[in-house]
Write a structure and sequence with these properties.
Layout: E1 9-13, H1 21-44, H2 48-71, E2 75-81, E3 84-90, E4 96-101, E5 107-112, E6 118-124, E7 127-131, H3 137-154
Antiparallel strand pairs: 1-2, 2-3, 3-4, 5-6, 6-7
Helix pairs in contact: 1-2
């Protein structure tokens, strides 16, 4: 979670990906090498069609990782500026959605769901927005605490 300047509170929420581009290249190289060697072993005993399936497996793993990295381009911006709390969601395709709340009435909840996970919600005047779904449970709790603190400061210490 980064904090841009020029706002009373601003955060950019992004999904975490543990495997960087270099690690991806190394992993795909290893998968390709193992698939090629295993394919050659089957080719040498006369089962040459199996070699194509090893190549297909490597191609499917590559495609799955590419889809995962594409999905990681999404992000959400939470911005408290003046009398407006804005949540802006940007999808991997670049499509934007935006919601505005009055910060005096907005509440942030890190609700526990039935299966033990948490859900980050922004609630105000009967409206509810679930956001930060890609954050871990600990990150959701930390972010809820930080945003609630900023909202409390905005209200001058008054709780809603």
């Amino acid at each position: 979670m980064d904090e841009p300047t020029g706002s009373e509170f601003a955060a950019i929420l992004t999904p975490y990906r543990s495997l960087g581009p270099r690690g991806f290249l190394v992993l795909m190289g290893l998968i390709g090498l193992v698939s090629f060697i295993a394919g050659l072993a089957f080719y040498s005993i006369g089962a040459w069609p199996v070699m194509g399936f090893f190549g297909l497996d490597a191609l499917l793993v590559y495609g799955a990782f590419k889809l995962n990295y594409r999905d990681a381009r999404k992000f959400e911006v939470v911005d408290l500026k003046g009398d407006c709390l804005t949540v802006r969601r940007v999808s991997p395709s670049g499509r934007e959605q935006s919601w505005e709340f009055h910060p005096y009435w907005a509440r942030v909840e890190a609700a526990e769901l039935a299966h033990g996970r948490r859900e980050l919600r922004l609630v105000s005047h009967g409206r509810e927005l679930v956001f930060g779904r890609f954050l871990s449970d600990d990150e959701k709790l930390d972010f809820a605490e930080a945003l609630n603190s900023a909202l409390l400061d905005y209200r001058g210490g008054a709780r809603v």
